[in-house]
Write a structure and sequence with these properties.
Layout: H1 10-19, H2 26-36, H3 40-45, H4 54-67, E1 72-76, H5 88-92, E2 98-103, E3 106-112, E4 121-124, E5 127-128, E6 148-154, E7 169-174, E8 184-194, E9 203-215, E10 220-239, E11 243-247, E12 259-261, E13 270-274, E14 276-297, E15 303-326, E16 333-338, E17 344-349, E18 354-376, E19 382-396, E20 406-413, E21 416-422, E22 430-435, E23 448-456, E24 459-473, E25 480-500, E26 523-526, E27 545-548, H6 551-561, H7 564-567, E28 582-605, E29 608-629, E30 632-637, E31 643-647, E32 653-673, E33 678-689, H8 693-696, E34 700-702, E35 712-715, E36 723-737, E37 740-752, E38 755-768, H9 774-783, H10 789-798, E39 817-827, E40 832-844, E41 850-861, E42 891-900, E43 903-912, E44 915-919, E45 930-933, E46 936-946, E47 951-958, E48 965-968, E49 975-980, E50 984-993
Parallel strand pairs: 4-7, 12-16, 35-39
Antiparallel strand pairs: 1-6, 2-3, 4-5, 6-7, 8-9, 8-50, 9-10, 10-14, 10-49, 11-13, 14-15, 15-18, 16-17, 17-21, 18-19, 18-20, 19-24, 20-23, 21-22, 23-25, 24-25, 25-28, 26-27, 28-29, 29-32, 30-31, 32-33, 33-36, 34-35, 36-37, 37-40, 38-39, 40-41, 41-42, 42-43, 43-46, 44-45, 45-48, 46-47, 47-50, ...
Amino acid sequence: MKHSIFNKKRLAVCISAVLATGLSSQLYAEEAVTDKVNNSEKDAAIEVIQVTGIMSSLSRSMAVKRNASGVVDVISAEDMGKFPDTNLAESLQRITGVSVSRSNGEGSQITVRGFGPEFNLITLNGRQMPGTGNSRSYSLENLSSDGVSAIEVHKTARAENPSGGLGATVNIITMKPFASPGEKFVLSGKGIYDSSNVEGDDVTPEFSGLYSNTFADDTFGFALSFSHQQRDFQQQSANIQGWQFQPDAQLPTLDDDKVIDNRDANAAAGAFFPRDMNYGIANVERERTNANVTFQYAPIESVIMTLDYTMGESTTGTNSIGWGQWHDFGGNIDAYELDENGTVIFADLSGNDGSYTANRNTTETNESSLGFNVEWRPSDDFVFSVDYHSSENKADNGKDKGMNGTGSLVFGSDQLVNKHYDFRQGDIPQGTIFWKNGSTTLAPSEIDSHFSQFEHTPGKSEIDQLQIDGSWENPDDSSLKSVKFGVARTEQTMGGSRSWSGLIGGFLFNPNYSAAFPDGMFEYNTTDGFLDEFSNGDNPMGAGYYYSFDFDEAVARSAYYLNSDVLGDDFFSTDAYRPGSVQSQSSVDEDTTSVYASSLFEFEVAELPVQVNVGFRYEQTDVTSNVLQPIPTEVWWKGGSEWLTQYQPGENTILSLEGEHDVFLPMIDAKIDLSEELVARASWGKTIARAPLGSLAGGRSLGASTRPNSRIGGEGNTNLDPYESTNLDISLEYYYAEGSYAAIGYFRKDVKNFISSQTITTSVDDMRDIYQGPRWTQAVSDLGGTPTSDEIFAQMQANGATLNAQGFIEPAGDDPLMQWDITRPFNAPDDKMVDGIEVAVQHFFGESGFGFGANATFVDGDVKFDVDDITKVDSVADLEPQTPLTGLSDSANFQLFYEKEGLSVKVTYAWRDEYLIGVGQAQGSSDAPPQFAKEFGQVDMSINYDIDENFTVFVEGLNLNNETEQSFGRYEEQFLSARQYGTRYTVGVRYSFK
């Protein structure tokens, strides 16, 4: 019987050698070591020449794709210690259907076929990895590409893969000494220049090394890789924290010349107003260290033992300054203009304040994985392995040496006449404040302390996993070729805590403490050149100026002047755990037992070779949630928009809840060689993605600083079922020349158990509400018209309401019960469908050295957020919960390269269309408004030149087109953020010995 008709030309010999080093499975490495002991004649007969470079990497990846069962894409190293990109996420986006989200201007997390980071599973050498911090999502920017030999992206179900990759399972393969016997090492050093940098070093270092060797007749092996990178850069940004919908009945009655209403007949019966308008400059220092060490030992021909350890540590320190204005969601409106969908594009507002903020944040992530594997081949037909690993991933934002959390100090003034929000032109809204001093510039002598807050939110994810696997190869000439089987036990814990100081230190400008902060503390800066990659209209950005101040000086002065003698319980402290702080803690334990089996068949149909792989995976999971809950008692008011939840003193309560679920995941792959060049595939199977931690954690939390019309809370649901997708893939691949192919595929995913949220309005215990209570309504009646909240506060005092020691009005027994909008997750009954087309082409222009690669993914489905749902109901309370899919977008990647006579040049372009980031905004209204990212396209380039067989010099350029990031809310006119990072350049040298 003819099992394969793929021609093994010159390139295929090289490909086979690479496959024998463990690219697709560690079994290849085992076979290489076992077979080599007594195969010297075979070794002499076949001389394998190691081929490296761009074309070699692409050819190896193509070969794995062609020979695999199911839909698999691979990225392999271009040479030992040289991956196509230094950032693994940036490399993955070259794969069809994979797009990335970015953090600090670097690729961070991946979306596959429209399914975001929480729907994809990351494994390291086949082991399930914990998410970064208190999450399921893995941040790839914290893992160096040095020491990585290949990355596999399994887009279809595989029985032997751990569950959790509904979009895809991504397996990162590190170098093993037995995979490439003999001594070899690589050293590289580079300097990084970031064009955005202002305060850090203009050039920062990155260096790495890799060493591998085998000893004692290749029965003992050792490999070590390490890397260290420093990067200094600046992020410039503008943002709005959220938008709130104001029904027509709540809009003020104004003269006709004060209102321009351009709403069309289909607009919602109300208007959308922004919470605030802020601008910021963040100077960032980042260090990343990674290392991997592997020992392998083959005491006898049939046994290989592997001990490996992988670690990563990343520290990101940020000092930022911000400035902006508080709008209170349009609470004090004097004039406004609405566009066709009811979004305010201009507003004249009074009241509230303008502010200048200094923030400091030092976050450290630590990840480690210790694993031990024993493989035993009792005969030529059987292979067994036992694999255990213990892995953890921690994120802690309390690593600043001066405080145990992040800090924010806010200064400003409420001495304003009015302020303008203007988004009638340009890419970014303008915010201008007209002060009582008769100008748009606040004098340093008028700046006072507003408030400060400090927060600590560490998180940790851990996995202990034991896997026992076996495989049997049928020695007989029959259609059944092999069987794989195994069992596993995975114990995963995800948890985190939060401690928040509250809003402390000189709250709300009354009384005034400006004398404690001298004029010289505040430095006047213009906004010349700020966010210059955007079209900013005719005016300079952000009123044309801002004040900056030294964080440490502001802390010292605040601690000295705003002490407990002056402020009582609201005294200034940088301790997030100060007396009176709000603390919470939650964790979720998942214990999963799984079993799997699969069988591979090969036969012929009409003389055409056919390969079928059929299998299943069954898993049973027990879930336990533990939540430390603060107990709310009442909400105080201090005028304006400052409402503060009070909590019962003493120990919080731990609430434990349990849940469980099980899944049966069948799969089948079929591949047929229609000719020597043409391959057809079809795959069907089920995959899952488990619910996010925030949805599973039980208990109830209420907003800590809660204002009217924005009183929200949430609670979890431990019995949530995982997302479950039934997947169909059909593809046709044409391998028409050496290193060249074209492919087209169709995929469809029918997903059930989508997790949605339902919001109910309810009271909590006996908490009373000052808002709309008898004292409130009497004050409004006394004042007449549409008084500001500050005017109501003053009138209530005039009517006899008393202030407590902290300057707040407390609720009274005749006030109504406070109404909270409590949101709870649930599995929606409706199923959702996502389908799409993937196309890819890779072409080498003969022996010219030129080549290109291009791919695109077009996705669609009934999982989009309906931004017009609010136009179809009479009130926000009537909105039905939506179950959209975050991350769904079209994407495309292009790559041009030249490689010949030691010179290689590569230019890449990655594009991603607009997509949904998530539902809900930080300070958005109870209708849970969406967040969308605008389309993004980035150009990168690299040039490598081999001086000789050992030395290579290289130059890299990232984001050469200086692309920016933008996001918006329900409509594009509802601006949310704009970020600008700049271009990065790298120059380096690499020395290798083999």
